[in-house]
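The material for today's practical consists of a large collection of protein records. Read left to right, the C-alpha cells trace the chain's path through space. An example says more than a description, so a record of this kind follows:
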Amino acid sequence: MESEVAVVGAGAAGLSLALRLARPPAAGRRVTAVLLAAPPGPFRAARRTWCYWEAGTGPYDEVLTATWQRLRVRSGDGWAVDAAIAPLRYKMLRSDAFEARARRDIGAGSCVTRVEAVAERVESAPGGALVHARLADGGRVTVRARWVFDSRPPARLPPARTTLLQHFRGWFVRTRRPVFDPATVELMDFRTPQPAHGLSFGYVLPTSPHDALVEYTEFSRRVLGRDGYDRALRHYTTRILGVHEHEVTACEQGVIPMTDADFPRQTAASVFRIGAAAGATRPATGYTFSAVQRQTRAVAAALHAGHRPLPPRAHSARSRLMDAVLLHALDRGRVDGPAFFTRLFARVPAPRLLRFLDGGTSLPEDLSVGLHVPVTAMLGSALTLPFVPRRSAPPT
C-alpha cells in the first residue's frame, strides 16, 4: 500500500490525527492516510476514560459521557474545597465512543483508509518510510508513506531525573439508592490512607445519582497488584464514601508515567512520534488528551499546507521546568502532596488553576499561582535539579 501518511496506532493520538486528516479544510490540500489499528486481541488497548476541560462546546461533545462545571478537592481530614470552573467544563469521554465516532467520520470520506493490523517494524526508505504490519489472519501488509506518525508507547522511557507513576484502578459503580452528586466531580479526595512514598487519592466521576466511576489513584514509584487496588477501592467506596450496597459493572486500570524525560518527537527523517510517546502527558498531572488535540491539530495543519509536519512540543519550556521541580520535590518528600494540591485549589481561582495545569496561562498568572506553593521546598528542588543525573527508569 502507498499513502502520503501512515498513522501507527489507534489510541487518542492516532485517532485524533486520522480524524483531522479525514476532514480537510476547504482551503487546504487533500492528504491521503492509512491508519493502522490493532485488531481485537492482546495488542488492542483496553477501554479507557479520558477527561479534559475546555471552554464552551468542543468537537467531541456529541459523544461525551458527561460534563461538569463544579469540582471538589478534599484534604486528608475531610475539609472540602468546592469550586465552580465556568466558563470551563470538565468533560468525560469514553474510548469506545471516541472510536465509534472516528470510524464513522473516517468511513464517510475518502482521505483515510483504516487497516486492522499490528505494526511490527518501521524503517526508513527512499522518499519516506515503510511500516511492516501483521494482519489478524497472520498475513502481512507493508505501507509505504512519505510521513509516518507513530503513537505507540516506547519500549522504555527516556532517561529522566525524576520518574513517578500515576497508577490507578477504577470501578464503574451502580447503586440502588441515589448516593452520588451528579453535578460535582470529586477530583482529588485525600482521605485515602497515604503510602509511605508519594501520595494517593480517590477520584469520583458521577454520571447520575446512581452511577459513577470511582477510582483509587497513587503517585509513586511502583504499581500495586490487582488485589491491592481492589482493597483500596473497597475501603474508599464503603468506608470513606459510605456506599455499601453497590454493583461493580465494569473496571478500568492504567499506568501513566509522570516524568521530566525529554521525549523525542522525531526518530528518522520521515518518522515522527505523537501523543504520550512524544511527551503529550503533562508531567505533574498525567492529563494528556488536551495536549494531544493541540499537537495533532498542528500536525494536520502542516500537512494540509504542504509543510514539514514536525509535531510541536506539547508543553512549553516554562511548564516543563515547573513540572520537573514539582516532581523532584514530591519524589524527595520535600512537599506534602495532599496539602500542596489542596492549598492550590483553596487559594487559586479554579478556572485559572485549570488553565495553569493545561499550560494556558501567562507568565504573570504563573507567578500568581506560584505565590501559593511552599517556596522554600520548591526553591530547594529548583537549585538541586541541575545537578541530578538523568537515569533510565525501570520497566513498569
